[in-house]
Write a structure and sequence with these properties.
Elements lengths: L6 E3 L1 H15 L7 E2 L10 H9 L14 H12 L3 E11 L5 E13 L5 E4 L1 H4 L4 E5 L5 E10 L4 E5 L23 E6 L7 E15 L5 E8 L11 E3 L5 E8 L10 E5 H14 L9 E5 H6 L10 E6 L4 H5 L5 E2 L4 E3 L2 E5 L2 E2 L3 H9 L6 E8 L2 E8 L14
Antiparallel strand pairs: 1-18, 2-13, 3-4, 3-6, 4-5, 5-8, 6-7, 7-8, 9-10, 9-12, 10-11, 11-14, 12-13, 13-14, 15-16, 16-19, 17-18, 19-20, 19-21, 21-22
């Protein structure tokens, strides 16, 4: 009861706040090296989700009736024709200002439907001026980027399917995987097309980050060799179903050290329909900047609670603004602390990653209950989620 109704930030504290703000805006990328490695076909987003989520029937022989060697041979024979060898080109400029285009890299991808859509990593096609795809042999197909999501490191490209059709990689279920389960990776490491490596699932629910610093939840760790050029290729189970998209390796040398990571196919099932329909993932936003309380306190700012997200600048017309939450304000001499978010829908929120993970699984138009610390007490307010354009500031993306 003896607490003040408002909390003020001194001039020194404001300097600290500015420094922390700049640090938050620069995403901290995990010590994982990359392996480097608007067309609406379905109608509504719901239809696209259903179409992509349906698992294609696999024709691989029941693994329990054949040897492990025969299973690996059969999975490769049946699935490798659906693994794309992606070659990228980029524009460069000489010191005289003359532009030219040359090959800039390569990666892998998986055919996901008969219309020619290919799933790969965002970093494989990022900044590419030209894309080509091959499936072995001399035939090369020009490709175009349909959509990309840097936050999950996933992208969809498209080719005009040949008259003889394409081999579609069937989708599995990444929610029921077990450590020790056999996996197979098919890709194009070091430019060697359609290479097979095998191993097991070494770990689950691994925290990795996309190149922009965003957390990618529930990554699959495997000891199947993944090298530069494997990026975007499928991680398959023994039935030939895609359970992950090979994305990163952990290696000081940049080559496989038996620690590779794949984005789970459950993430792709959620993201790809929007990439095909909109060219991007349309995530709801709260429309404000946020500062983790723990980081502010570690830097000497006196705040009334130990954990939470201090609301900074509120964007007019955003979800936070419409719900009546309060951000930092000024009395002319000092900054006045407004609301500090402590939980959303009953789930504790203490850092930017917590907030991102929560919003990443929500849809525009949904409502959430946001609990905030306000003037010595706790207040819960309903907030309707809307889409808000990015402002270019890393923390205001929420």
């Amino acid at each position: 009861m003896g607490q003040k109704a408002t909390y003020q930030l001194t001039a020194r504290q404001l300097v600290v706040l500015a420094v922390v703000s700049s640090l938050i805006a620069v995403a901290v990328v995990a010590a994982v090296s990359s392996s480097g490695i608007g067309l609406n076909l379905f109608g509504s987003d719901e239809q696209a989700q259903k179409a992509f989520a349906e698992t294609t029937r696999t024709e691989v022989t029941d693994p329990s009736t054949v040897s492990d060697e025969q299973n690996s041979i059969e999975v490769y024979k049946k699935m490798s024709p659906g693994v794309a060898f992606i070659t990228t080109s980029a524009r460069f400029e000489t010191w005289l200002g003359e532009e030219f285009e040359r090959e800039s890299g390569n990666g892998s991808g998986s055919v996901i439907d008969n219309q020619g859509h290919i799933l790969t990593n965002f970093h494989v096609v990022q900044n590419a001026s030209k894309l080509t795809v091959s499936f072995g042999g001399n035939k090369v197909y020009p490709a175009q980027v349909v959509g990309g999501d840097p936050d999950t490191d996933l992208a969809v490209i498209k080719i005009t399917p040949p008259a003889e059709g394409l081999t579609v990689i069937p989708l599995g279920d990444s929610s029921a995987l077990q450590v020790g389960q056999k996996v197979l990776a098919i890709g194009n490491p070091f430019g060697l097309d359609r290479t097979l490596t095998t191993g097991v699932i070494s770990g689950l629910q691994r925290p990795i980050r996309a190149r922009n610093g965003r957390p990618i939840d529930a990554a699959i760790q495997t000891d199947a060799s993944i090298n530069p050029g494997n990026s975007g290729g499928p991680l398959l189970d023994k039935y030939g179903r895609m359970i992950g998209i090979n994305s990163q390796i952990l290696s000081p040398s940049g080559a496989s050290a038996g620690v590779g990571f794949a984005v789970p196919v459950s993430t792709a099932k959620r993201v790809v329909p929007q990439l095909i329909q909109f060219g991007e993932v349309r995530r709801p936003k709260l429309g404000a900047t946020f500062y983790p309380v723990e980081q502010l306190r570690d830097r000497g700012l006196r705040l009334p609670i130990e954990k939470g997200l201090l609301i900074g600048r509120i964007l007019p017309g955003g979800s936070i603004d419409r719900a009546g939450l309060r951000g930092l304000s000024s009395d002319g001499e000092n900054m006045i602390v407004g609301d500090i978010i402590t939980s959303i829908d009953g789930t504790e929120v203490s850092n930017i990653d917590d907030l991102y993970r929560f919003l990443d699984k929500k849809k525009i138009g949904e409502s959430i209950d946001v609990t905030v610390y306000r003037k010595g007490g706790s207040v819960t307010l309903p907030v309707k989620l809307i889409q808000q354009p990015d402002t270019g500031n890393g923390t205001s993306r929420f």
